[in-house]
């Protein structure tokens, strides 16, 4: 992952493992330290507060620490939905407040991850979803129902990804592929990650 991707992919995951963080005490004080009363990891909250305060993320080019995962660690026990809610709330605060995002955006993918992303959006942000882009021919021409603030449902179309236009979020796991990244490069070659689109899965 490049230094730019540490920031541009910040809604996909915490791009730097918490035990490897090094920062000056002034950053700790500016962010306000860790939030202990959170259902998600305090590192996720600190990470996004740091970025919202115009903080930078940089990677040292050589390993300074070896981090080992183990089966009982807390990060594996965090509820998936709570982590997603925290990431989506940060996305709303950091991205959806400015144009062109505040005028509407599309969602790449029309599966479970995309639906979960939309459920996690606030009512106001959910109204900004204009279409779902999909490469799977079987899903094209259908609609996805999204709840509105007045408890009714709004139908959002599923359209071919070849009609992709910025801004958009990608709700397809990079590991699964499905040719989505290649399709983004083909269908929106001028789109810049971290400006015109963000990964949320």
UniProtKB/TrEMBL annotation:
InterPro entries: Nucleotide-diphossugar_trans. GO terms for molecular function: glycosyltransferase activity. This is B3gntl1 protein. Transmembrane segments: none annotated. It comes from the Eukaryota.
């Amino acid at each position: 992952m490049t230094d730019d991707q540490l920031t541009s992919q910040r809604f996909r995951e915490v791009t730097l493992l918490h035990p490897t963080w090094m920062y000056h005490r002034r950053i700790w004080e500016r962010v306000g330290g860790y939030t202990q009363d959170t259902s998600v990891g305090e590192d996720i909250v600190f990470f996004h507060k740091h970025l919202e305060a115009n903080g930078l993320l940089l990677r040292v080019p050589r390993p300074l620490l070896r981090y080992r995962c183990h089966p009982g660690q807390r990060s594996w026990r965090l509820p998936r939905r709570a982590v997603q809610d925290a990431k989506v709330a940060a996305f709303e605060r950091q991205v959806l407040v400015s144009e062109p995002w505040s005028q509407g955006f599309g969602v790449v993918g029309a599966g479970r991850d995309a639906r979960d992303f939309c459920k996690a959006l606030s009512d106001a942000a959910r109204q900004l979803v204009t279409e779902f882009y999909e490469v799977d021919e079987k899903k094209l021409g259908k609609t996805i129902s999204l709840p509105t603030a007045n408890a009714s449902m709004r139908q959002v179309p599923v359209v071919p990804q070849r009609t992709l236009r910025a801004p958009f979020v990608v709700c397809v796991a990079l590991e699964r592929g499905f040719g989505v990244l290649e399709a983004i490069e083909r269908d929106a070659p001028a789109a810049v990650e971290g400006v015109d689109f963000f990964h949320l899965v």
